[in-house]
Specification:
Number of strands of chain A: 0
Low-confidence stretches of chain A: none
Order of helices and strands of chain A: HHHHHHHHHH
Oligomer: homodimer
CATH superfamily of the largest domain in chain A: Tetracycline Repressor, domain 2
Shape of chain A: elongated
Distance between the termini of chain A: 45 Å
CATH topology of the largest domain in chain A: Tetracycline Repressor, domain 2
Number of helices of chain A: 10
Mean pLDDT of chain A: 90
Chain lengths: 200, 200
DNA sequence: GACAAAAACCGACTAAAAGTCGAAAATATA
DNA sequence: TATATTTTCGACTTTTAGTCGGTTTTTGTC
C-alpha cells in the first residue's frame, strides 16, 4: 500500500518539471507517461484529469514557498526587512522562471495566475502577523492590515512579474508601500538595494 | 470586395457573444460556424487561428471602452470624479460579467487576463492626463504619475474583479488611492457611494 | 504456501477539437 | 463572354484528453 504513493509522487515530479520547462499547455499527458514509462490507464489511476494534476503540482510549489516564508517570519530580522524578504521569497524561483521563461509566457497564463492566487491567500496571514508586529513596535501605523497586505502583494506581483520594470516603478513601489503601512518616509528605501543587487 | 468585411464582422460578433457567454475555452470553432451557418474553410479564410479571433474580439471590446473613457476625459467633471469614472468605465460591462459570469470564471482566465493587460496599456495614458490636470490644480501632489496610475489600476482590477470585496477593502482602496496621488485625506470618500449604489 | 481480495497497471479505443487543402461556386473585371 | 479573383465548401488529418475492460502484481489471511 505504499508503492502507489511513490508512483504518484514520481508523476507529480515529472509533471512539475515539464510544466515549468515547456509550459502547462505544451505538455501532454502522453509526454508525461512517456517520461515515466507507464501507460495512460496508470496515469488516470492516480489523477482524475490533467487539470487536477496541475492543481496538485501547484500545491507542492506553494507548500515549499510557504515553508520558506514561515521561517523568515520566525527569524530575528527587523520587521520591514522581514516583510520584504517574504515578498521576495514568494517570487518564482529562478529555475521556475528562467527555463525558457515558461512561467511568464503567454501560453502559461493559467498556471501563473493560479499560482499567484493561491500564494496570495496563503501569504496574507503570514505577512499580516509581521505587519501587526510592526504596528506594535510603532514602525507602522494603519488599520485593516490584511486588506492592505493583499494590495501590497497584488502590486508587487503585477509590477515585478509581468512587466520589465523601471527604476521609477521601484521608487513608486517603495513610496506606496510606506504609505500603505503608514511607515516613515524613506524608511523602506532599503528595498532598492535588494532589487538592484541580486539579479545574477 | 465588401462582402468579406461584412462576413468577418459577423463572425467577430458571433465569437464575441459566444466567448462572453460560454467562455473562450468552452466555445469551439464548430460552435461558431454552426451559428454563422458557414463551413470550416470559410472561417479559416478570415482567421488564422482561434486565438487570433480572440485577439481581434478583445480589440473590439477595448476600442469601445477606450472610446467611452475618452469622452469622460473630455467631460467637465472634477478631476477626481473623472478618474474614478474612467476606472469604473473600464470594468467589464454588465452583460459581459453577468451572463453566466463567464468572464470571471476560472476557465476564462486567459481572456480575462489579456483584456486586463491591453486595457491597462491603453488607459494609463488617459488617466495620466487627468492626474496631471489634478496636479496642476493642486488637488494632487505626486511625481511618476504613469507608474502610480498603473498601480492604481492593478489594484482596482484585482480587488474588484476577482474577489468578493468587503467594505474594508473599499476603505483601504480609498485610502491608498488618496495616498498614491497625494490627495487630501478623505477627499475621495465619494468613491464609496459609487460602489454601494449602482449595483442594480 | 495457497488463495482470494485489493491495488496497480495496461493499451487499444473513443471523442472532441483545431487546423488543412484542393476543388467548386460566386463575383468582379476586361 | 472569357478570365481572374474572391469566397465558400466539407472531407480529411492530427493532436490530445479521457475511458474501459481486462491483466498482472501486491497484500493480507488462513
Amino acid at each position: 500500500m505504499k508503492k502507489g504513493e511513490r508512483r504518484k509522487q514520481e508523476l507529480l515530479d515529472i509533471a512539475y518539471r515539464m510544466f515549468i520547462t515547456r509550459g502547462y499547455e505544451n505538455t501532454s499527458i502522453d509526454d508525461i507517461i512517456a517520461e515515466a514509462g507507464i501507460a495512460k490507464g496508470t496515469y488516470y489511476y492516480y489523477f482524475q484529469s490533467k487539470e487536477q494534476t496541475l492543481e496538485e503540482v501547484i500545491g507542492m510549489m506553494i507548500e515549499k514557498e510557504i515553508e520558506a516564508a514561515g521561517s523568515i517570519l520566525d527569524s530575528p530580522l527587523p520587521v520591514p526587512q522581514k516583510i520584504v524578504a517574504i515578498i521576495a521569497s514568494i517570487r518564482p524561483a529562478p529555475e521556475e522562471q528562467t527555463i525558457e521563461g515558461a512561467l511568464m509566457q503567454p501560453e502559461n497564463i493559467i498556471m501563473h495566475q493560479k499560482i499567484k492566487r493561491r500564494l496570495i491567500e496563503k501569504v496574507v496571514p503570514l505577512l499580516t502577523k509581521a505587519a501587526e508586529e510592526g504596528v506594535e513596535q510603532g514602525i507602522f501605523s494603519c488599520d485593516n492590515i490584511p486588506e492592505r497586505i493583499r494590495m501590497m502583494l497584488v502590486i508587487s506581483n503585477e509590477i515585478f512579474d509581468n512587466y520589465s520594470f523601471t527604476d521609477r516603478d521601484i521608487d513608486v513601489f517603495i513610496d506606496i508601500t510606506e504609505k500603505i503601512l503608514g511607515a516613515k518616509s524613506h524608511s523602506m528605501d532599503f528595498i532598492r538595494q535588494l532589487i538592484n543587487a541580486p539579479s545574477v
